[in-house]
Write a structure and sequence with these properties.
By secondary structure, the protein is of the alpha/beta class. The chain has one domain: Alkaline Phosphatase, subunit A (3-Layer(aba) Sandwich). It is built from 10 helices and 17 strands. The strands form 5 sheets. Strands 1, 4, 5, 6, 7, 8, 11, 12 and 15 form a 9-stranded mixed sheet that branches. A two-stranded antiparallel sheet has the order 2-3. Strands 9-10 form a two-stranded antiparallel ribbon. Strand 2 and strand 3 form a beta hairpin. Helix 3 packs parallel to helix 10 and helix 8 packs parallel to helix 9. It is globular. This is DUF1501 domain-containing protein. It comes from Humisphaera borealis.
Amino acid sequence: MNRSLLRSDEPTRRRLMASAASALLGVGLLPEFLTGRLDAAETVGRATARSVIYLYMDGGMSHVDTWDPKSGDVAGPTKTIKTSADGIVLGEYLPRSAQVMHLGTVVRSMSSTQGAHEQGNYYMHTSYQLRGTINHPSLGAWLSHFRGPGNPTLPASVYVGNASRHPGAGFFPPQHAPLFVNNPENGLKDIQLQEDLTKARHAARMELAGSLDAEFLGKFGNQRNVAAQSNAYDGAHRMMASADIAAFDLTDEKPTVRDTYGRDAFGQGCLLARRLVERGVRFVEVSLHGWDTHSNNFTATPDLCDKLDRGLSALVGDLHGRGMLNDTLVVVATEFGRTPRINTNLGRDHYPKAFSGALFGGGVKRGFGYGSTDATGENVAEAECTIPDVNATLGKALGLPVEEVVLTPNGRPFKLADKGKPLAVFA
């Protein structure tokens, strides 16, 4: 059924809760939260995952050096290693991930139409091509729109890393944008009351501010920007009072656990993602930058893979050990692959025609390989998977209505994954 959920006066519009403003928390724009929930009858089917941890390899990860290794001249110095999953091999730079491959699915038949970074990144996150006339929502924003937050005192989604190209909330209201955290080790700044400010004095100040704003909000509170600003401060206050804000403090973890994840920003971001999902946050993205290996691919890729390998294997193993992997979907994605043929700079160039990703937990098959490329990794040989197909698969795992049409404020119709169809990767 086609319907718009974006009108502020719509009776079915989910009630807004709150978020925090960047000036208050010092970590970027926090979303305002939704209190409503998607009824079971509205979902595309039974959800197999409650949360998603989305590990994004920014810059274009070489598939033939990682998830889809080849032999001969294409491989260069990269060797192939066996994994814990029968019949699945990986590149030698992912030895720890190879040991948990029996818990996931590798997808080796992805194909994109976008071969430039900004366009490819946008397409991967939204299922739509980058246009100058409209901004499309990321998957985390769609999840927030349909389902609201898993924890009403924490953000519905969080992004860890450099967000210069992240599409955020797109055409949805700003409350659906993720909380941006640049450095996972810094926690949230300015989230505690000042030392000389008691809770009673703070409450009195909030009451005074509310009374001063009441007349203005009575007249203009339904306007989008006014509501966003007002709800931002309400949400900041809610977060300050939440015991679950401790999720952002990684010093609570044992040093040995932090070492297992890797002491770099990506590894600690993966640990933060686990802590947030543990407390109900539905969508966490962690970025690892630097995969644009036009030159010196065989120097840069092993270093990047070491960070990915530590963080990913620790995360999957940790979730599995805590009994969380069944309802948490871990995704490894990138905007495109790299050319199987090595260039004159000992690098690999952009290659959207065929590349790979991986899925762990969240109801997907275990020890499974979906699709394949030919002997050189240049062409998809079996079960081509488009980018909208990837996002439709994630939407299905989350039980979202993938086929439901949502209207933008100016009446344009869009779906979560455009024309994408879920892959046959579920157990």
